[in-house]
C-alpha cells in the first residue's frame, strides 16, 4: 500500500483521535470523534466551547488518528490542517448520531456545529518501522 492508501485505510477504520488547538501560544488537545469524506475530516461540537473560540482566533489544528494500542508498528496519522466552523445542514446530518443526544436536541440544534478539517499534510507514521511518509495537499 502506498501512503494515500494507508491513510485512507486508517481514516476508514479509526474514528477517535486527538485534536489540538492553540490558545495564548499554548497547545490544547482533546479527544474527538471524526468522520471523513476522502481526506477531509468532520467532527461535532457545541459552538459554545473553548475550542470554537480558539479556532476562530487560530484555525490551525493538529490531529493524531489511528493508533490501536496493539504494539509497536501500529500505523497512525499526523494530520496538520485548517479548520472552518460550519452549520451546513448536510454536514450536520452526516455527522449526527444518537450518542450526541445528551448534549444536543438533534442535528437542527442551533448550538450544534461541525468542525471541517481540510488537511495541509498527512504523515503516515510508524508503519512497520518505515520512515514517515508525507502526503501534501
Describe this structure in words.
The chain is globular and about 45 Å long. The model has no long low-confidence stretch (mean pLDDT 92). The longest helix has 11 residues, at 3-13. 24% of the residues are buried. It is α+β, with helices and mostly antiparallel strands and 137 residues long. It has helices spanning 3-13, 50-57, 89-95; strands at 16-23, 26-33, 35-37, 40-46, 60-65, 76-86, 112-125, 133-136. It is 19% helix and 45% strand.
Helix percent band: 10-25%
Distance between the termini: 19 Å
Measured by DSSP, the beta-strand proportion falls in 35-45%
Instruction: Name the shape in a single word.
Output: globular
The helix count comes to: 3
**Spans of 5+ residues with little confidence (pLDDT < 50)?**
none
Q: Mean pLDDT score, rounded?
A: 92
What string, H for helix and E for strand, traces the elements in order? HEEEEHEEHEE
Rg result: 15 Å
| Alpha-beta content class | alpha+beta
Topology of helices and strands:
Elements: H1 3-13, E1 16-23, E2 26-33, E3 35-37, E4 40-46, H2 50-57, E5 60-65, E6 76-86, H3 89-95, E7 112-125, E8 133-136
Antiparallel strand pairs: 1-2, 1-5, 3-4, 4-7, 5-6, 6-7, 7-8
